[in-house]
Amino acid sequence: MFPKQQVVAMLLAGGQGSRLGVLTKNLAKPAVPYGGKYRIIDFPLSNCVNSGIETVGVLTQYQPMILNEYIGNGQPWDLDSMNAGVHVLPPFQRSRRSDWYKGTANAIYQNIPFIERYNPDYVVVLSGDHIYKMDYSRMIAFHKEKEADCTIATIEVPMEEASRFGILNTNPDGSVYEFDEKPKAPKSNQASMGIYVFSWNKLRSYLEEDEAAPKSSNDFGKDVLPAMLNAGERIFAYRFEGYWKDVGTIDSLWESNMDLLDPNIPMDLNEESWKIFTRNPVMPPHYVAKGARVQNSLVAEGCTVYGEIDFAVLFSGVYIAPGAVVRDSIIMPNTRIEEGAVVQYAIVAEECVIGGGAKIGARPEDIVNKEEWGVAVVGNGCAIPPGSVVAPKSMIDSESFAQEAVKNARK
Questions:
Q1: 329 among annotated binding-site residues
Q2: Would you say 101 is a known binding-site residue?
Q3: What confidence score (pLDDT) does residue 406 get?
Q4: Residue 399 has pLDDT above 80, yes or no
Q5: Is residue 317 left, alpha or beta, with left meaning phi > 0 and alpha meaning psi from -120 to 50?
Q6: What pLDDT was estimated at residue 368?
Q7: Residue range(s) defining the domain that contains residue 108
Q8: Does the pTM of the predicted model rise above 0.70?
Q9: 135 and 215 fall within a common domain
């Protein structure tokens, strides 16, 4: 028997993250490094701990190995208790058939037995690919106060971006009367954050109905929430004010890292009352050599800097050689930037080597055709030969770079 938990959190971390290109070729999106020492999943896990939620199920599917290893027994987030803690929940074989998670709702449906072990009153459903700090206990208190069946966290987005989100239309008391998933002509800019609080008994019945519907896509936004709304259930919007970023694209991931270098952006990683916990790489302090130039940058432990960095985020174990320049870029763990290389407006993944004199990316003001400009990306483990050029907006990994080299050799 497991002790009753009033709240169980279910963290959806199985997305492929195809819009992140080579960064998620062999890595689940929630495991992508962020902010110099974190991975994206650190934020919802830390929010759970700081909100007093002791039981968290992490639903994995795509490329789960590194994510599973990273979560481990949950100790870095204080989620390693004997009767609660964090649990990695991959799809598993039922009877003689193997069931992949078919959608967000189906993923929770398949884990009803896990949730039932704790006999919760409420289930919090979270996404594993957002950067934000949020006290879920306040949202749960709001849910109780409204005697809601479902509460959806919302944030105001620019009207021109509203069609990318699930959009809610509400009454003056916050009750939801309309929900449109990615509407072509949105009626408001009140967007769903993909964070839900459900009364468990009510959610379970809708999950079972949804699973029995042969034409359902088994998705919360497309199926379960509209079904609850049509049935007249009590659904409320919980307005969130603060920093929130969906880092599902290259541009948004780059922007969110750069936001950490802007004192005017309300995302404080130094906040004692709401720490973001992570797994420590256990490396020595960073070293900045005499003559090196470091400005407006985050430099993690284990880094060695001889060159020049400005508006850069360096993860643990990064080496910047003499004469190398890194500007407006993200350099992920254990990557080497060799002498004379220039990296600008780029994301360089883990375990890469950027050869001497290579040029990665470019500043927007140096591009004549602005449509050709964008963040350059170098994938995990890629070795860029000395003197090579990786153009803006390019996505390069070891395989594609080798193919390009063969093409050039044949010309």
A1: no
A2: yes
A3: 41
A4: no
A5: left
A6: 79
A7: 5-259
A8: yes
A9: yes
Number of domains in the chain: 2
One-letter identity of residue 245: K
In 3D, which of 326, 343, 404, 328 has the Cα closest to residue 378? 343
Residue 403 in this model has a pLDDT that exceeds 70: no
Q: Cα(107)–Cα(114) distance, rounded to whole angstroms?
A: 12
Tokens standing for residue 188: 């408001």
Measured between alpha carbons, how far is 1 from 117 in angstroms, rounded to an integer?
8
Query: Per-residue pLDDT for 15 more than 90?
Result: no
Q: Tokens representing 334?
A: 């254990």
Q: What percent of the chain has pLDDT over 90?
A: 74
In a domain, 280, yes or no: no
- The amino acid sitting at 73 is N
Same domain for 314 and 194: no
Closest listed residue to residue 152, CA positions, set 87, 233, 54, 47: 233
35, part of any domain? yes
Tell whether 182 is in a known binding site: yes
Domain co-membership, 227 together with 318: no
CA distance 17 to 27: 9
On whether 35 is known to bind a ligand per the annotation, the reply is no
Whether 53 and 134 share a structural domain: yes
